[in-house]
Amino acid sequence: LYIEPGSPWENGYCESFNSKLRDELLAREIFYDLREAQVLIENWRLFYNTARPHSSLGYKPPAPRTILPATFMPPYRLKAA
Questions:
Q1: What share of the chain is helix, strand, coil (3-state, %, to 5)?
Q2: CA-to-CA separations, 19 to 5, 9, 22, in angstroms, rounded
Q3: Eight-class DSSP state of 12
Q4: Domain locations along the chain
Q5: Are 20 and 48 in contact (CB under 8 A)?
Q6: End-to-end Cα separation, the chain, in angstroms
Q7: What pLDDT shows up at residue 81?
Q8: What's the rounded Cα separation, in Å, for the pair 42 and 76?
Q9: Is the pLDDT higher at 75 or at 30?
């Protein structure tokens, strides 16, 4: 479908995301400075992309985090802190 330039409201994917962002984050938070807004929005973005269950995936997260076994870790990552 053709989307007229300058009219993002015609894009359903964009509007769905904007609605979720507005309802789940922006309407529930008060940002007192730019840094706080950046941190909260980044945390929400990570949750939205990795942990949030999605109905079309059988309520599984869209991109679950993975953990590599120690045998696949680079040697510099195995050093004790």
A1: 55, 0, 40
A2: 20, 11, 5
A3: H
A4: 8-77
A5: yes
A6: 54
A7: 47
A8: 28
A9: 30
